[in-house]
């Protein structure tokens, strides 16, 4: 009888942990969904030396559950739906094969860093629209 009760307690604890883990991931992912206005774009070389900094120029990133649309009149991908995934704080954008590490995500602020490309990476700061 003790073995049965112990087994049930272990199963109950595991169920609780799995449910808590899934809920935490859902909350984080839901924070990404929405429209984000680019505030600054800062480019660094591979030695983390700042190369340039620009304002947002009206660029908006719009995340749904699995789709990203970038609104940027100066980009050929303006308005093109892109598929993305978000796992362990990394946004992977299909089609353009780029990843972004999420450094900060809150109700009104998003800061991401691109993977290095040609010895350069970019840190993008957004505010919620």
Give helix % range.
10-25%
Structural class of the secondary structure composition? alpha+beta
Radius of gyration: 19 Å
Question: Which ranges are low-confidence, i.e. pLDDT below 50, for 5 or more consecutive residues?
Answer: 1-29
Strand line-up across the major sheet? 1-3-4-5-6-7-8-9
Strand and helix order = HEEEEEEEEE
* CA distance, first residue to last residue: 58 Å
- Helical stretch count? 1
Number of strands: 9
The average pLDDT score comes to: 82
Main pleated-sheet profile: 8 strands, antiparallel, barrel
The proportion of strand residues reads over 45%
Shape: globular
Explain what this protein looks like in three dimensions.
The protein is α+β, with helices and mostly antiparallel strands and 129 residues long. It has one helix at residues 2-32; strands at 34-45, 50-55, 60-63, 67-71, 81-87, 90-93, 98-105, 109-114, 120-128. Residues 1-29 have low confidence and may be disordered.
Keywords, please?
disordered N terminus; alpha+beta; 47% strand; single chain; 1 helix; 129 residues; 8-stranded antiparallel β-barrel; 24% helix; globular
Quick recap:
With 129 residues, this protein is of the alpha+beta class. It is 24% helix and 47% strand. A hairpin with a 3-residue loop joins β7 and β8.
Structural topology:
Layout: H1 2-32, E1 34-45, E2 50-55, E3 60-63, E4 67-71, E5 81-87, E6 90-93, E7 98-105, E8 109-114, E9 120-128
